[in-house]
Amino acid sequence: MRDEKLLYIGDSNLLQGLNSRTRHMAAYLERRFKHIDLVGFENFYSGSGPPAAPLWYKARKGISNLLCRRTRISVRGSTRQIVIRDLFAPPPLHLLVKDLWRYFILCQVITLPYDLAIFGHPENAWLAWLLKRSGRVKRLIYDDRDYVAGWTHSRFSKQLMENRERLCVRQADAVLSTNVLLARLRMQQGARQVLVVPNGVDLSLFARARQKVPHSPTLIYVGTLSPLWGIDLAIKAMPALLHSIPDIRLLIAGAGPAEADLRALSQALDVTESVSFLGRLEYQALPAVLAEADVGIATSLPGSEFRKYASPLKLIEYMAAGLPVIATRVGQTEITMQQADAGILIDHSIEEFAAAATRLLSDKRLYERYSQAAVTYAADFDWALLLNKAYQYVLSILESDQLPRAAVASSESPGGSSPPKPKGGQ
Questions:
Q1: How far apart are CA 245 and CA 216, in angstroms?
Q2: 419 in a domain, yes or no?
Q3: Are 307 and 300 in contact (CB under 8 A)?
Q4: 228-265, pLDDT tens digit by residue?
Q5: Is 280 helix (H, G, I), strand (E, B) or coil?
């Protein structure tokens, strides 16, 4: 194990039982460094009562938490997990207030100095800047998971987040990005050097899903239920699919703001008996559900900048489970599908979705070809393999005296960093 002191600044995912890049990376680094502090955040009311409590109750409990329970620190061997309760502030000041508050509280509990800090999410932009500027950390790596500026529809909020993302990549000694499109954007914004380390999968876990259990023809979506993810496309295609495949079913595993609308849509189209909402599933439970499915769905809406740069975990999880995928031609998802050749790319069209699903479920030879291609492609995306590459990159930053500007380095696929040309028949 390494002797250097490491500070890992995560986010709320560090505290939740989710299959997140944050948790996988934190667990891996904990095994590699003798002295590591993991930092996560929770809101000022979190854990103090029901989410639907009155505002006055939340305010009273939140103030009490800030006065008496600002931090929670737990110790595992030489690893400390530090949880900071955030201070509430109204927009547009809330991000800056969070940065300053987190810095103020963190300075009271950390031991100095750190050889390296790894931080993710532009919410931590000024926190990271203050830590390095004050000499509390010697070097910074930005774990660039998403184009967060693309999430908001407000021009002011988008500009604010873009400025924070630029600060993140310019102040960092190096950047880890989840895909080539995102890495190129960060180089344009002034990053010194970028390594592409995509999101991965626990191959040994998801390989269990290849042992199929008897089921009728099944489409499956796994993930957040958000309008941007375009799950409504599959529901809208169900009437046509039921006409040609009477026993077809659609499984939707996840939760989110679009759930009520999606349920209402399935009722309006009279397909409720063929569409099942499974709710949010634990990571360990996903293979058992995927073993009852045949085709994975990743039909993001076109035109979303957030989705353009996103690297959906679901794509690799579907493939590791041996499922061909139906995906829309959107940004990084399209590039991944072209590289894998493990399914069918479509425009965001009900007719194209129905045709793709029918083709996959009726053409056994085509299905088997895509299924095998999916398994082959996913083999390069095991979390252990990817995080080992990230670890070697971290060591190079720790051990180098100077960090020259460099081109994007890619570990995303055996084919290198350049997106492949589209394949025929998709």
A1: 10
A2: no
A3: yes
A4: 889 999 999 999 999 999 999 999 999 989 999 999 99
A5: coil
Quote the tokens at residue 380: 């390069």
Cα separation, 341 vs 376, in Å, equals: 10
Which domain range does residue 340 map to? 203-379
CA 395 to mean position of chain CA atoms? 24
CB of 82 within 8 A of CB of 73? Answer: yes
**289 has a pLDDT exceeding 90:** yes
**């931590």: which residue's tokens?**
124
For residues 209 and 194, state if they share a domain. no
- Structure-token pair, residue 181: 């499109």
Structure confidence at residue 311 (pLDDT): 81
CATH code at position 118: 3.40.50.2000
Could you read off the pLDDT of 170-201 as tens digits, one per residue?
999 999 999 999 999 999 999 999 999 999 99
pTM metric for this prediction: 0.84
Contact criterion met (CB below 8 Å) for 251 and 292 = yes
* 3 state SS of 118: strand
The total number of structural domains that make up the chain: 2
Collect all residues with Cβ–Cβ distance below 8 Å to 105 and sequence separation of at least 6: 70, 71, 84
Does one domain contain both 192 and 210?
A: no
420 in a structural domain: no
What b-and-e string marks burial along 248-260, b requiring 16 or more CB atoms within 10 Å of the CB? bbbbbbbebebbe
Angle subtended by helix axes 364-378 and 313-320, to nearest 10: 120
What digits encode the pLDDT tens for the residues 44-66?
Answer: 777 777 777 888 778 888 788 78
